[in-house]
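2.7 Reproducibility. Because tokenized structures are sensitive to small changes in the input, we list the exact sequence used for Phosphatidylethanolamine-binding protein, including any N-terminal residues retained from the expression construct. No trimming or masking was applied before prediction.
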Amino acid sequence: MFPSLPTSLAVLALALSPAAVLADDNAESVSTLDFKNRFVSSGIVPEVIAALDPAVSFYVTYRADDGHSELITPGSSLTVNETSALPLEFSVENLNNATNITAQTRYLIYLLDADAPSRSSPTARNLRHYLAGNYTLNSANSTVLTTAQRLSIPEANRRPFTPFTAPTPDANSGVHRFIYALYTQPARFNTAGFESVGMEAATANWNLSRWRTQLGLGPAIGATFFTIDTGAAANGGSGSNSNNNNTGNAAGANAAGNVEARGYLAGVVALAAVVGALVMV
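Resulting structure tokens (single pass, no recycling of outputs):
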């Protein structure tokens, strides 16, 4: 038999049981004003998007490295692993604040990298990683934020124009800002593809203004963004001016702290797994 384990390890094993580690995050709502302000403070507005005045709070749920389901809030720092698959869910709050919305309304969602291949030299700016239409309101609410309504695509309409491509920014290219945006979909695209109005499949240097004109879109009704820190680029490498450098450096510092914390947690979880195995044996 194995010797009895120290009480502290036994308590640790109980606290880090699968049910505790995989429990959904205790998420809180973000106001539309906060979304708007964070897009400005990040430099995305007006550097990438001319303006953003969201009518809804738009949320993206991902599975964190520690196993939790968590919301992306504007400016969340994520790892490449955490963004390796389509989000677990999309959801919205305050949908009644958007105009011309009905129960039959469908929605478009995109994901782009604003800083490809780097923020200091974005020669492939607005690299599109995902674009799909035909999202509709789901009868169920978000599994993470119960006040938000889920968006989903019926299986019969699951035809993304740009299938999801996981973000894999180059090492040492600085902090990348990845934007998810939500639009109402013109009814004619309920049955027609975006190529019917001349939209091209090329994903780099996506011209958002031209795309909106082609499809007859209004402004985004909601948007959020996250960052991936690939390490310091040459000359600081995270911004095109001094204000953006400060923003990028701050995001990088936060990302480093998050990575360190996640690494620590992963070690603790591994220790708990060993403890659990010993107890079972």
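Strands lie at 57-63, 69-72, 76-77, 89-93, 106-113, 127-141, 149-152, 175-185, 222-229.
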